Amino acid sequence: MEAVLPGEVQIPSLRVLRDVKLREAEWVRTRYEELSLIEEKRLVAICHGQLYQQRMKRAFGRKVRPRVYYVGDMVLKRILPPQNDRRGKWTPHYEGPFVVKKVFSGGALLLTTMDGEDFPSPVNADAVKKYFAKEGLKRTIASRMIVCALVKASWIIPGRDQLESSCSEGRKHGESEDIWGVTELELDEITGFTLPLG
Prior knowledge:
Oligomer: single chain
Shape: rod-shaped
Strand content: 5-15%
Number of helices: 5
Largest sheet: 5 strands, antiparallel
Order of helices and strands: HHHEEEEEHH
Distance between the termini: 89 Å
Strand order of the largest sheet: 4-3-2-1-5
Number of domains: 3
Helix content: 25-40%
């Protein structure tokens, strides 16, 4: 028996066929079976690749905590694009706080300022983060927004002769519990609901 090169084993030559003593018809049949197995191996490889991707997606998905925003949440909006500022790394990256006015499917949010001015276009939820304020501040800000909305809508508050039209002026922290002459109880009566804060 002669030594056979590996290349000749993969691509049979007459010498290999003679040594193995295969007939040509039998060789053609085995070659066809090998070629048909290539397609099966390719399908198995694709299947393994898809299974691997699903496992990786599940593994990374366990670590992801989705950010859910509701109407009335206070958020900070990222300043896009980063500005060229002389302050360097101390340049603020977020502005706000803003209040979520409407939540769209797909993660878009419609924001309003504290004075009740709406943003012209929705903001992606990736560009905002929640703002956590103190309880008293939350109540003050929510009351201030309601009063601003009432002033904008020109509602008449029963029992009050005059309401300040300037929504930008509000009470400072630590002053009396009424805002622009309207107590929090009256705000709840006017709006018809108690603010869900906290």
